[in-house]
Amino acid sequence: MSQLLNTNRVLCSSILMACPQLVATPNKFFFTPTGNTKIVCKNFNTSPTLMPLRQSLVLNVRTQFCEDIFCFVRGLLACTHAILPSFEVRIDDIGYEVGFLLFSNERLIAYCQLDQLTVINFCSYTQSVCQFIPIDLLGHFAPNLQRIKAPLKGTVSDKYPLNDLKQVTISMVYEWETIKTIVKKCRELVYLEIRELLYHPSAVGDEDIFQLFERGSENLEVFRLLFKNNITLLGGLTDILKTCPSLRIIGDLKYWKITEKLFYRLHKQVNLHNFRIVIEYDGVLTEF
Fold first, then answer.
1. Contacts of 278 (CB under 8 A, 6+ apart)
2. For the stretch 164-179, what's the b/e string if a residue is b when 16 or more beta carbons lie within 10 angstroms of its beta carbon?
3. Is the per-residue pLDDT at 168 higher than 90?
4. Which of 9, 89, 188, 266 has the fewest CB atoms found within 10 Å of its own CB?
């Protein structure tokens, strides 16, 4: 296996060519808060109605936007259990809001990037298993969301389908059902990475993967599961590649139940059907 898994330095450029819609790299997915601080509101949860925050927003943020941002922050506070929360709105050089940030005890816990007063990127920096963000909450307050990096729970609903969602990095997901609805409902999805599954991760096997992609995912280019599971893909990798014609990277097989023997069989399957695919093993990308 070691011969097959040698690092290919030329591969980075070929991956970018193979995945033209991919903005994030396979290993990192971060957002940088930009712009200047327009409003800073601290310790606003002393009031059970959060009125100090709302009053500050009304005074400092465009009126058509302040109510939405207030409701969104109120929902995030309920999920993140922020201590001594503070809040910032960032603006660009000409005074347009480009992002807002939520802090807990001066530690950044959530960042939203804006485009014309619409949230397009959401990143949560929470670390506790008690701080899952309901994906339906994001769909409600950010229907045009394109990128998510957060611990998630719940399902994508028909009412808030997140039709523009392209990139999802989940630090921890509460249950597998969340992943199923993301793939099913978010048809523009390009990048999907799940780093940890809270309930029964080792129970995830081939049947779960086949059901996940049963309806196909035409735009998906990168699929990464980074937790110990029971997936072998034996006999089914070619079926997945048929239903996901844009898929270019699968990994990380280090965490999957794939032996050296199975790895060679997968390699043979891919070559037999002339598929173009990159397999990740222990952070190393190998083109089949």
1. 11, 15, 18, 248, 249, 250, 285, 286, 287, 288
2. ebbbbbbbbbbbbebb
3. yes
4. 9
Looking at residue 1, what is its pLDDT?
A: 45
* Cβ-proximal residues to 115 (8 Å cutoff; 6+ apart), any chain: none
Secondary structure of residue 17 in the 3-state scheme: helix
Q: What are phi and psi of 185, to 5 degrees?
A: -90, -35
Distance (Å) of CA 48 to CA 8, 41, 51, 89: 56, 15, 8, 22
Q: What is the C-alpha separation between 220 and 186, in angstroms, rounded?
A: 10
Return mean pLDDT, the chain.
85
Can you spell out the DSSP letters for 25-49? -SS-------SEEEEEEESGGGSTT
Looking at residue 27, what is its pLDDT?
A: 45
pLDDT (mean) for 145-157? 95
CA 10/CA 284 separation, integer angstroms = 12
pTM: 0.86
Name the nearest CA neighbour of 135 among 189, 200, 62.
Answer: 189
**Alpha carbon distance 62, 118 (integer Å):** 13
DSSP 205: B
Handedness of CA 142, 145, 151, 155 (dihedral sign): positive
CA 204, 210, 212 angle in degrees (round to 5)? 75
In this predicted model, what pLDDT tens digit does every residue of 67-103 receive, in sequence order?
999 999 999 998 888 888 999 999 888 888 999 999 9
